Amino acid sequence: MPSVTRVVLAEDEVLLREGLVALLNRFDFTVCAAVGSAPDLLAAAREHQPDLVLTDIRMPPGRRDDGLRAAVALRADRPQLPVVVLSQYVQTGYAAALLDSGDGQRVGYLLKDRVAEVTEFVDTLRRVADGGTAIDPDVVRQLLHRPRDPLAALSAREREVLALLAEGRSNASIAGRLHVSEAAVGKHVGNILVKLDLPPSDDTNRRVLAVLTYLRADAAS
User: Fold this and answer.
1) Is residue 17 very low, low, confident or very high in pLDDT (cuts 50, 70, 90)?
2) Domain span at residue 103?
């Protein structure tokens, strides 16, 4: 990622949009365009070819999931385009749709409340721009606390590890959070991938597929 990350921002609430622009400018992001509708987001992203797209889900003209659909369309054009979407509520189906777009990586789904936690918010944007995946912890908890067949074989500890994986954490970060060794985390991750019957691939892709497995199951329930 370049030292200055170029961002296209889409948010229809003027005060929040201007606040996000000011915040991004403080932390070495350059806002190429700040727009208020999904069609304008599509046009701006295709014109500026940014390093990151940050968008609200509910946008004009429909004020439903127009922002999300625009983000998915942009990732159809550029599968590796980093995208972070903001939502007022926990909507796991939207998270699943986003993770299903493009190559399944470089995506983030955050609740708007997280914007107030400035350091965490900025770190999440940088992580996604660097190729990571970040799902809001409230979304992860809602998904993992409801039993679904694809996750039935996972132990309680494996579910904890999967929740932290979905937040985009590394093995070292997970080990620190759970107060266990990195080797133990690696073993849990390996067990999760085996129990979810994921095809052999590189570790990054298999982690994303693990997240997709339970998001898809939730969206279908």
Assistant:
1) very high
2) 5-135
Closest CA to 45 of 58, 61, 31: 31
Give the full edge-to-edge strand order of the sheet including 5-10.
Answer: 29-35, 5-10, 52-56, 83-87, 107-111, 134-135
Query: CA geometry: angle at 167 spanning 82 and 149, to 5°?
Result: 110
Listed residues 100, 120, 135: the one ending a domain = 135
pLDDT value of residue 2: 46
Task: Say yes or no: 89 and 72 in one domain.
Answer: yes
Tens-place pLDDT, residues 163-195 = 888 887 889 999 999 999 999 999 998 888 878
Closest among 112, 108, 102, 158 to 133, alpha carbons compared: 108
Pairing of strands 134-135, 5-10: unpaired
Whether the full predicted model's pTM is greater than 0.85, yes or no, is no
Q: For residue 207, what pLDDT is reported?
A: 77
